[in-house]
Prior knowledge:
Elements (H helix, E strand, L loop, with lengths): L19 H11 L3 E5 L5 E6 H8 L16 H10 L22 H11 L3 E5 L5 E6 H13 L2
Amino acid sequence: MKVRDFMITNVFTVKPSNTIKELLLILKTNRIGGVPVVDDKGHLVGIVTDGDVLRYLTPKPIGIAGIVYLIEDGELEDVVREKLDTPVKEIMTKRNLLFVSPDDDFESTMRLLSKHRFKKLPVVNGAGRVIGVISRGDIINNITNNILIS
């Protein structure tokens, strides 16, 4: 079996210029944890996940003792609101991007997801365009439907 047999083809993506706020709306609305970042032609240029957003929005320790002091209750919310206007390109993973091709086999994709502990990988065609996503859940469903139930 090949990746094309069980990948998701209805892929949600963002552009590097999209804001974190726009990204969060896509993640929440579609109940997903990350998306490929593509250029205007649909070529993969990065990946951004809810974990990337959380790491960016989390206050960094400051001061000699490494303690964050919040003077007022609203201060943290103000900082988060301000950071929501940051472009996705500032927080996305852009180096050493891993992806699979629609012709890759099931076993190698399973190994790749397992080895790197990724939740999902983009599926990229020969022209470098994102045409799908394959997730751990897709693999589990495939095993359940085609091996366990057979």
